[in-house]
Specification:
This protein has 140 residues and is mainly alpha-helical. Helix 1 crosses helix 3 and helix 2 crosses helix 3 (87-131). The protein has helices at residues 12-59, 67-82, 87-131.
Amino acid sequence: MACNIFSWRKSNTSNICSRFATWLFLMVAVRNVVAPAIGTSVYANWLQERQQYYITRFAQDVRLDNPQSSAPFVQAAYLGQRQGKDSFEASRWASTLIKGQVSLQATLVAMKDITGSTIWICMGSVLFVLCVPYYKQEKT
């Protein structure tokens, strides 16, 4: 008797087929819905944590006594004053510009950090799979 997984008859074969259909549905649901949701959540949280780490790390170097970071700030503040803003607004505008640059740099470095860590995790997993023997006691 052919196994039709979509049959509605109550017999021993249909019971096996319904179990197979349920198992198939669960495998597809986990593979296509649950696993990507968990992966996305893990990577989003990991990126957020690394971004905050690098933002605080890079923001410590942005000071007016540092010529490398003060030059864009002074230039942006001067440009803001040339556009008709008062010195306070021009300073806020320049701070927002510098904050955007620091955030962008922190995001790029965080993504590089996560990519490198992911590669190391994958290489470790491959090494683990190759080193640990797998013996399955199967009888045919």
